[in-house]
Amino acid sequence: MKQSIAVLVFLFISTNSLAETISFDSIEYVYQLDSQHSFDFAGGASHQCGSNLYRVKSTSSESIGRKFSMVLAAFFAGETIIVSAGDCEGNRRVVSWVRVYN
Q: Looking at the DSSP assignment, which residues form a beta bridge with residue 68?
């Protein structure tokens, strides 16, 4: 039982350590794909996926709507956003959460 818990804790820590928190002082552009569960934005320097593009994904249309609104508002107002970016999807880094910082 202790070994199982230790393995689960290790997997949780190693999975979360793959994500990186990134701050953007400005966003170049935001666009929504035909998908109801994702949108893309560009900002910052190039990352390990080979571009400065990020894809925000969610399984809930309400959640993706809130994230899109935050990123779009930050784009228009010139606010700083903070995201948690993980793996690559093509030349885009996948974002799990978004925060606006003012």
A: none
Radius of gyration of the chain (CA): 15
pTM: 0.78
Which residue has 């928190």 as its token pair?
Answer: 21
Q: What percentage of residues in the chain have a pLDDT greater than 90?
A: 53
Look up residue 31 and give its two tokens.
């666009």
Q: What value does the mean pLDDT take over residues 68-93?
A: 92
Residue from 19, 14, 15, 67 nearest 47 by CA: 19
- 9 pLDDT higher than 50: no
> What are the chain's domains?
20-101 (2.40.50.50)
Q: Per-residue confidence at 16, pLDDT binned at 50, 70, 90?
A: very low
Can you list the alpha helix ranges (DSSP code H) found in 18-60?
none
Report residue 78 CA to chain centroid gap.
Answer: 18
Q: How far apart are CA 48 and CA 33, in angstroms?
A: 23
